[in-house]
Each structure stands twice: as C-alpha cells, then as structure tokens.
Amino acid sequence: MRKGVLEYCILSIISKEEVYASDILATLKEAKLIVVEGTLYPLLTRLKNDGLLNYRWEESTSGPPRKYYGLTEMGQKFLTEMDTTWAELVAAVTNTTTSKTKK
Amino acid sequence: MNKTITSNIAGYVFHIDENAFDKLDAYLNTIRSYFKDSQGKDEIIADIEARLAEMLHEKIGDMKQVVSLEDVNQVIIIMGQPEAFIDDDPESAGWTEQKSQPRDSESKRLFRDPDNKVIGGVCAGVSNYLGLGDAIWLRLALVVSFFFFGTGFLLYLILWIIIPEAKTTADKLQMRGENVTVSNIEKRVNEELGTVKNKWNDLHGNSGAGRKIGNLFHRIITLMGNVALLLIKFIGKIIGFAFVVTGVIGLLSVIGIPFGLPTIISLGSEGAMSALDVQDIFHNLVGGDGMITWIMITGILVWGIPMAALAFFGIKLLFNFRSHNRGIGLSFLGLWIVGLFMSFAISMIVASDFSSEGSKTETVELQLNSDQNQVINLALNHELGDDEPMFETEIFNLNLLTPGNSSKLYGKPELSINMAKTGGPKLLITRTARAKKKQDAVERSSKIDYGFAANDTAILLNGYFEIPEDELWRTQEVDLKLLIPVGYTIYLSDEMMQIIYDIDNVTNTYDGDMVGRRWIMTPKGLACVDCDGLIKPKKSSNVDVNVDIDIDDMNIRIKTKEKQEKLEIQQKRLEEEMEERQRELEKIEDELEKQEFEETEEASIHPKEILLKRVINATYRLSPTISRTVSISYPG
C-alpha cells in the first residue's frame, strides 16, 4: 500500500516539472514519506520500465550530467486515473472514519 | 595516517581513505547482490552510486579534500540498507506490477537446523528434510550406529561439513520446504495463530458425494503419476544410500589403516589380515617412518577422495542436496591427481631399491659319518622358538608372522641336492637380497638369519629363514644346496616336502614322491633305494611296505610279498649297474697296467703295490653300491 502511495507521489512530483532524483528525494523526505533514500531508486527504475516515465541527461554545472525525469504520455494518463482513484479512496476513507466517530 | 585512494564514483573524482573506500565498496556490493534478480538492476545501482557520489561531493565542499570513513558512514545511513528499500512492502503488487520474483524453491533444501541442534544440528536438519518430525529417532539411530565401527560418527562428520547451516530466515523456510515470500511468512504466522479447524475445513469441507466421484478418475491418474514419481525417487534414494554406504566404508578402511583400526577389510577376509598387518607389510616394503606417512597420505588422497566423492554424490542423491561449489570439487580433483603423482613417485623410489641383486654363498663342510653305509637323515625344523607365530599371513611368497605385537618376516628356503664332485659332503647356503646398489644388496643378504644343525648322521634344516625386524623386505631368498659325494645315502623326511625344489634324480621322480624315502648318490645322480621307481608310488605305500632296516648288517627285509617282484627288478638293475662298474674297473686296471709298463722302465718302485693301491681305491669308491646290492636278501 505504502509503496503504491509512494509511486503516486513520485509521479505527481514529476508531473509538475522535470526533476532530478535529489529534488524528488528532498520533497519526499520533507513529507516524511521515505526514511532512507535508497527506497527511491528501485521505484524509479520500475516506473521507467513500466513506461510511465522517462528521463534525459542534462549537463550540470557542479558535476557530471544528471538524470532529469519526466512523465510519458502513458504516465500522464495513469496519473489522471490515479488522481481519481486517490480522491475516491480519500473520500471513502474519510466517510468511513467520520461515520465511525459519529456513531 | 591513512592511505588514500583516488576513485571515480559516478563521474566525480574523490580522494578517499582506504578504509572508507572498502566500506563503500562493500556497501555497493551488498546492494548489487540484493538486486541481482531484479530487472534494471544496473540502472538502480548506477543511480544509487550517482546519488552517493553527489552526497559525498556535498560533504566535502571546498574545505575538505579527502573522504573519510565517517563521511561514508553518514552517506550510507541516509541511503539506507537494501533491506529497508523494500522492507515495508507487504502489498508489493501495488498499482504497478511487482517484477521481482521470490526465489523459486518448490522442493525442500537440506540445512542444518541451528534452532534444534544438539551438536551440529545435522539430525534436526535431516529430520526436517525427511519430515520425520522429532529428531530424537534419528539421533538414537546415529548413536546406535556409533557402535558399528564408528560409521555413524564419520557419517555425521561428513554431513556436518557438507550441509550448510540455515542462517537466515529464508534458509529456515527453505529447510521446511516453504517458498520464501513475504506472503508465505504471513501465512505461516496466520497458520500458527489461526484455528486448525480452518485448515481442516479447507481439506475436507467440500466433501459432496457427487463431486467426489467426479474427481475419482482424475484422482486415480494423479495417484498413479505420483506413485511412479515416488518410485523413481525411491530408486534414486536407494542408489544414493548404496553410494553413501560404500563411500563411507571405503573411507573408513583407508583412514582406519593408518590408525590401526579394525576395518571392514580385516573383518571381510575371515580375519586373515588385520589393519596392523597391512601397516606392517607397507612398513617392511617401503621402510622409513617418513615414507610410511607419505604412503598414508597418498593412500588417503588416491583412495579416500573417490570414496568421499562417492559418499558425497550419494548424499546428494539422497537429499536432493544441491552444491554449487565447483571450486571444492576441482580442488579435490587436483588433490587426487597430486595423489596419483605421489603414488607414482613413491613406487619409483621403492622400485629403485629393488634394482640390484646381491648374494653371498656360505659353504659349510659337513662332518658326516665317514661310514658310507650310514643313512643320513634330512629333517626340517619348524620351530621358531620364542617367535612361534601367533598369526600368519602369506604375501609375496613370504610369511608375515605376528608373534605378540611385533611382526617379523619369514621366508621358506629352497633345497636342492647335488653330487659333490670333489671333497666331502657340503651344504652351500646362498643368501640373496636386493637393494639399490649391489654391495648394499650383498650386505643386506648377509643379514638374513638362517641356521641348521648337523651331526654325523642327521642334518636338521630350519624350515624358515628370518629377516631381522629392522630389515626391509627386498625379495630375500635362501637357497640351500646339499652336495653329497657318490655313495652317500640320504633319507628325506616327509616334511622336507616344504622346502625341496625340483631335486634332480635318475628316475626323474617328482618332489612329492621323493620324500619319505632313501636316496643314494650314484655317479649319474640320486637313485631311489626303497621305491619302485617305475610306478610312482602313492603316499600310502609306506603302509603297504613294511621295511625293516637293520643298518648294522645292511640287511633290508621287505615283508610285503607283493612288492617282491618289483624289488627283484630293482635288484636286477642294481646288478647291471654293478657289472658296469666292474667293466669300468677292468678298464682302469688296463690303464694301470700300461702305466706300470712305463713306470717299470723309469723307476724301480714296486709297481705291483701301486697298482694294488689304485685298484683298492677304485673299488672302495664303488663299494657301497656293490656291497648293498649284494646284501639284499629275501626271507620269503
């Protein structure tokens, strides 16, 4: 479940702008969604292999070239779907939890 | 002070402390092995490496120049251990499909069980594997088998060495034959916590009669297939078991010999050869304790390794045990080849000590009764005195006797009887041995201990010669040659059979028929006195013929009438012989007369006296034959 959420978050971060790994990590760490950075890389690779995102190399001023990730068309569609599912889920969860407290 | 390494990590150049580098390298290797089955592992690792480099680069900044161990540690903490990457992943399917596969392991694997161990966890592990439940039965069986020449002990040791211990949880799951997946771990917990009833329902819940019948056909087919599969497996196990047993026994016997254990070999051959004997044989053959050690090592390598391999292969068959360690196999093969070379080298060394033969002949003048009518008795002395054998093994035509706890080598001498052309009766004792150099061989031969006893009417030969305890076996031989002048009569006692070897005689009588009889040395060779010579008598002839020998009168009375005819023939032969002698005598007389003629011309010695003397001498030489022939009488 958590990994699914993590994937959703990663995709949505990437959807806003083209980012590179450190940016994603910074955001996720801030949100306390991941504890160790290593978690990110297998996920990125998997998402890329599933055709949801791609990357391009960009020269860096401070070191070797960096990978900048962006969503593919499929990734974009998938994300839209996910947004709906997530909204539904949140609604459902909220519904359930609040109805419970009302009872 | 620390050594630094210049390293290129994902495009950044770092000066990095050696210990820090090692740590980083080890960390990356862990990650690499962790993701080895995942798709896109190279990419993951490259990304991680890049991120690590980035972080390290940030840490160093402009001030520091060298990456320290602490830097690396901090970076690793941030990156996290690979287990943590996926650890929180119970619903791994997620929204995208999980690609990493759990290790496939349909069958159980054999591990030693460290959780239920008494010594090494071997019994517990094997019980798990075979599904025996409690390991106590296996332990009991093993303890019992300890008493069968320690078979169980060795088997246990081998298993202990080759079966790996179940260290990780995954190993332990595999040990119990369960797939190593997260869901499986969960299932296991659930099974333990949940009700047994559920399980039972799963198995027997849908027990509607119709469904059962419908399934029956399918079930039978499945059952038959299973039975066939089981049978094949079972045969495999039996072969495996046979391999294990053979291997262990072979190994025991080769390891047992150096330690003098009673081995299967010694029990198998009716107790004829004990491990100690084998050791002694090697010792006497090779010599030198150092050499023995080498032989033992070689033996273990050449014989033990195939046996161990057989046992190992058997275990693999028996337990579906998989070993991927090719290195061990290859190194054992290498050791085995080394062993082969060693055995070749040892054989060469030993063989070189057999290369030269040397011998020494000792001549002993026998002071036999000058009365030529006297029969000389030849007998064998079997007694070895204090060294009376406790245990006898015959190898290399040699007797290995084990009196008490020491062992000595004894051999049998060979006796031949020939005519003494000159001088009186003699015994020639030729001792032969081999060594690297001829002179050493001669020296070695002189150490052979052989003796005999003789008085004026009998010769008592030792039945054995002895190789001293500190001497090696180098084909030592003792050849005895009894030289007797014409006219002497010998008697070969029955036990002489053991040492006489192809003794020449005028009647060409076989050795076995020569014993128990008297033989006279004639100018043509040995002639039998009291056997018919034509028909080879059976051994029982001694009973048929009752020979009464009155030596003083030289009267031989043969009481069995049936034998008389044959004896008459014999007598005739002897008479013919006598006539021949007399003709010879006449010839000599003729010669002497000629000489006399010459002598009378040259000197004035009494020629008649010289003639007489010579005639007497000649007659005397022949007299035993003549006198004996004449004195045979038949009272019947």
Question: Can you characterise this structure?
Answer:
The complex is a heterodimer of chains A (103) and B (636). With 103 residues, chain A is α+β, with helices and mostly antiparallel strands. Helices cover 63% and strands 14% of the residues of chain A. Chain A has helices spanning 2-16, 21-30, 40-49, 73-102, and strands spanning 19-20, 53-58, 66-71. A 3-stranded antiparallel beta sheet of chain A has the order 1-3-2. The longest helix of chain A has 30 residues, at 73-102. In chain A, 26% of the residues are buried. Chain B is of the alpha+beta class. Helices cover 50% and strands 16% of the residues of chain B. Chain B contains 20 helices and 19 strands. Chain B has helices at 18-34, 41-60, 69-79, 82-87, 122-130, 136-145, 151-162, 169-175, 182-193, 196-204, 209-259, 264-268, 275-286, 289-319, 326-352, 438-445, 511-514, 541-544, 564-602, 607-631, and strands at residues 4-9, 12-17, 66-67, 356-365, 375-381, 392-395, 398-401, 408-411, 414-419, 426-435, 452-454, 458-462, 465-467, 477-484, 489-492, 517-522, 525-528, 547-550, 555-558. In chain B, the strands form 5 sheets. A 6-stranded mixed beta sheet of chain B has the order 11-12-5-15-16-17, with no helix packed on it. Chain B has a 4-stranded mixed beta sheet with strand order 4-10-14-9, covered by helices on one side. Chain B is elongated. The model of chain B is unreliable at 87-106, 192-201, 262-273, 534-545 and 623-636 (pLDDT under 50). The interface between A and B is medium-sized, with 31 and 36 residues.
